[in-house]
What we know:
Layout: H1 6-9, H2 16-27, H3 31-39, H4 43-52, E1 54-58, H5 70-80, E2 84-87, H6 92-101, E3 104-110, E4 115-119, E5 124-127, H7 128-144, E6 151-155, H8 159-170, E7 174-178, H9 182-190, E8 194-195, E9 207-210, E10 228-231, H10 240-245, E11 250-252, H11 256-265
The structure holds N~5~-D-ornithyl-L-ornithine (2YH).
Amino acid sequence: MTRLTTEWIKNMKNELPEWGRGLEEMTHMSPLNLAAVGGDVSRGRINSASWRIKVAVVPVTQGEGIIDTFCEQVAAIVAYMGFEVFVTEQTDVWGIYEATQKGAGIIFLADDMYFLALNMSKNVVVENSDATARGFVAALEGAAGGLRDRAVLVLGGGRVGKAALSFLRCRGAEGVVFDTDPEVLKDRAAEGWRTIKTKEEIKEFDLIVDCTPEGNWLTPDMLHPDTLFASPGVPLSLTPEAEKMLEGRIIHDLLQLGVITMLVMAC
Ligand code: 2YH
C-alpha cells in the first residue's frame, strides 16, 4: 500500500479549485455530483448534512507516524465541499476524544493500513479504498457518458480493485480484472470475475480503472488508442509517453476524489 508523502500533497489545498474544474471538464459532473453518484447518496442528504454536521480530522502517530500536512489537506478537501471542519490539536485516542467534545459528527483518521471516516451516530464506517474505487468509477462513467453493458478493465485485484469491480457491476458494467500476481488473479476468478492473464490483453480495453501501486509501467504500445483512464493508483502507472498519448483522458488524483466520496458516504 502506497504511503503518501508530504512532497506529493503539499500543494493540494491551494489547487482544489483547479482540480475541481479539471474533473468537471473531463466528467461533465461537479465533484459533489460525482461523490453523490460514487457514494450512492442524494444531493439533498449531502446538503442537509453540510449545515448540520461538523467534521474533525484526527492526526494519528501510530506506525510510521504523522505525514506533515496530511490532515490539513484532508480538512481542506472537506471544507471545499462546504462542510465545517477542523483538525484536532491532540492526536490518536486523545484526538478522537477532543473531536467528540467539540461536537464533530464525522471523524476522519488514517494509520498506515486504513483511512476511515466514522459517523458513530449513524453507525457508519467508510473505508478509503472502497470510497476511492467508487469515486473513480463514477468519474469514469461521467467521462465515458455511461458504463452500462460496457467492459471495463480493472488493473490490480487488491482492496481498491475488488471494490472497483463490485461498483462497476452496480453501475451495469462488466468488470474484468488483471493482476500480475497469479494468486490474486485466481482468487478474483474464483469469485466469478472475468480475468485476463497477460499484459498484452490490456490493449483490448478502452475503459480502464487502474488500481495498481507500481508507477511507470504502462507504455503507449500496451494501450488501446481510445483509452479513458481512471486511476486512483499511486504513483501513476503510465509512463510519461503514455501520459502524453492519453492527454485529456486521464482521471487521476492522490486523495481528493476518495475523500469527498468518503465524506458523502459518512453523511
Ligand atoms: O497513506 C496512508 C496509508 N497508505 C493508508 C491509505 C489507505 N488507503 N495513511 C496516511 C497516514 C496518515 C498519518 N497517520 C497522519 O498524518 O495522521
